Amino acid sequence: MAVVKYYASLRNVVGKKEEQIEVASLSELLQRLSQMYEGRLARHLKTTTVLVNGKNVIHLKGRRTPLGKDDIVSLFPPLGGG
Amino acid sequence: MGTKYGGYMGRYLDIDLSTGKVTDYEVSDEDKELYLGSKGLGARILYDNLRKGVDPLGPENVLIVNTGPLVGSGAPCTSRFNISTKSPLTGAILSSNCGGNFGIHLKRAGVDGILVRGKADKPTRIHISEEKVEFLDASDLWGMDTEETQEKLPARAGKIVIGPAGENGVLFANIISQERAAGRGGAGAVMGSKNLKAITASGKKKVSVVRQAEFEKDVKKWISILKAHPTTSETLPAYGTGIFVNRCNATNTLPTHNFKRGSFEEADAVSGEALADTMLEKNFGCVSCVIKCGRRVKVEGKEVKGPEYETLGLLGPNLENPDLERICEWNYIADLMGMDTVSLGNTLGFAMELNERGLWESGLSFGKTDGIAEAIENIARREGIGDELALGVRHLSEKYGGREFAMHSKGMEFPSYEPRGAVGHGLGYAISNRGGCHLGGGYFIYFEATGPITMDPHTTRSKPEFVAMFQTLLDAVSSAGNCQFTSFALIPKQALELKPYGAIYRTISKVMEGAGPILKLVLKQPGIMPFTLPGELIPHPKNISDLTGMRMTMGNLLAAGLRGYLIERMFNVREGFSSRDDSLPERVTREGQGGNPKWVVPLDKMLPRYYDVRGLDERGIPKPQTLSRLGVKV
Ligand code: SF4
Questions:
Q1: Which parts of chain B sit beneath pLDDT 50?
Q2: Which residues make up the CATH 3.60.9.10 domain(s) of chain B?
């Protein structure tokens, strides 16, 4: 079970801060999320940055990044600040 | 006096508090072309007006308050004014940028900038109008906090004021305008040392625009870009800069326990999201801003300014404190007292670690919130341990030990980013001319951990080149008078929609790692970019051209940023700074983050390459040919 954590506006879209989802890879997770939240999340997923265990997946295997038990997937909308 | 360029009022004033003399200070059109205004031009003027070795808190120090051409022009996010002076915290050059209303009103009074020198014989307020400069008795304001002081001043005037911290020489005292602060480096103490409680300005003059119709079109377009971009139209207004708490926490860049760690179990409790859910009353913005990243929260039933990201991080996780209400309260007290919350959070964190290690019984402990509010007031009034805390981390480390975990560079404490999780950002702390600072250091964490397109945070490949490039861009944006947050829209909305986890982003990230040689070429010869870029990418050059009538290309904009850095650097060199001051504490260069020996900031590896890109010699001093190529006279 990967732990999926939502941040900023994504929390409002899905109505929760985190949940556990059984998937084997990031692409599977993205598909699952689109199904679970239908159109609501689709627009946001186009611009979402994805970290797995704190690492941006573009430095892992992108969509093919494998997800296993206890992996933490963090989903962020585009941010600015500081 | 006067100027052939639009955007400028054509007048700088030289104000001597010791003699009461006010004269016009000549700033040539050539210097405007070379340095634009604000930060860059402020550094030039300071260099020309200060001798080596003056006491930053003595009457000889000069306080420059100035603006850039875009200020007051109607362009978005351009209320910014700049303070340049010799910092009492670092002894190096200081520039500090603020979004309060003073800059706009100064221009309405027909003035681009002022130099304040000398020392008044009693507490004084300077008032600048179109007709004259007045020296007014401010004895009744002395001792008042920044809010009360501003309430006593004319409602319609632009104002800058100091609080008790500035009056009492706290080395990280700030200058407040409305609810915004020129925060870092102790400019408030410089004002206090001159017996200067406040400066006000008012008038009705308008900024002239050379190509009015074109400029209006530019501004409309720029506003529409900022209003359509998800970063500047959604996240920043909704969550403020505090949105970075969770992001930094997830990427191991959130300073925790005096920067010992990069993440905090309870970070979410002090995040921008938590603030929005629990304490936010509304958002607010600096004058002329369409982004409005500021927060208003309730503290003890009163609506006050809420904390920024830096404050959340440094008064929260850095002190192992998950109590958001306390942070809001401390932030408010610090603002009232007029002190920088970045240096404050670091100083408290360092005192806690000294206490933990038995090096100094400060009575302050991680996770303990009791007594902090009192400590902040004591710092401002220089009472009890506050008297020593008022001198900052470097001073404490020299007296009590712990230099290896004293989180500062050149005496300026670090902002709220743990650099072992973003090594280019760490390089920025070391080579920033004002000391440990993210804004002066290129803010590269955005491309290592917190932005949508990131490079591997631990690689050094092309980092020195990128850091130099982003420093240059941000310096130029600041010098023009623009808020640096407008730069968050530089990654166009369309690019964000390319799925930041997909193949295109992975390719861009790899390409960035190999981009060093190209960046170096552009920085060595900015003239190879004799064009402006489409408004969606970098709108600044075209806006500046249409406003001022200057020929402002991308190359010219970069050259202005490069010159600003060099003249700041020359100021520091004259004061005796060299490569040994471009340093970081051992905690980040030797102590591997999370026990991983590889996760350090490999400064030794990056510094020589950075010097090379900047045209500095191995001592970090600008080479004569670098200065002459860019026309920087010293
Ligand atoms: S983005 Fe924030 S800091 Fe910048 S001008 Fe707007 S309100 Fe001020």
A1: none
A2: 12-201
